[in-house]
Amino acid sequence: MNSPQPARLAGTLLLLSSLGSLTVVTVLTVWAGALTPGYSHASQFISELGETGAPFEWPVRLAGFLPAGLLVA
Questions:
Q1: pLDDT value, residue 6
Q2: What is the C-alpha to C-alpha distance for residues 17 and 23, in angstroms, rounded to an integer?
Q3: How far apart are CA 52 and CA 49, in angstroms?
Q4: Is the dihedral of CA 28, 41, 20, 72 positive or negative?
Q5: pTM
C-alpha cells in the first residue's frame, strides 16, 4: 500500500481549508445579513456585520471571522 505523497496531502489540506473558509464566510454573511435590519448584501461590506454595535457583532466575530481567518492562515 502506497502512502500519499506529502505534496499531494498538503495540496488537499489547502483546498479543504480554503473551501471551509469560503463556506463559513458565505453562511455567516447570508445569515447575519438577512437578520440585520437595513443591511444590503449588494452595497455594504461584510465587516459591517461585525462592527461595534451591530446586532450580531459577537456571533459574527466568533463564529464567522475567527474560524475563517484561522482556516485561511
A1: 84
A2: 10
A3: 9
A4: negative
A5: 0.76
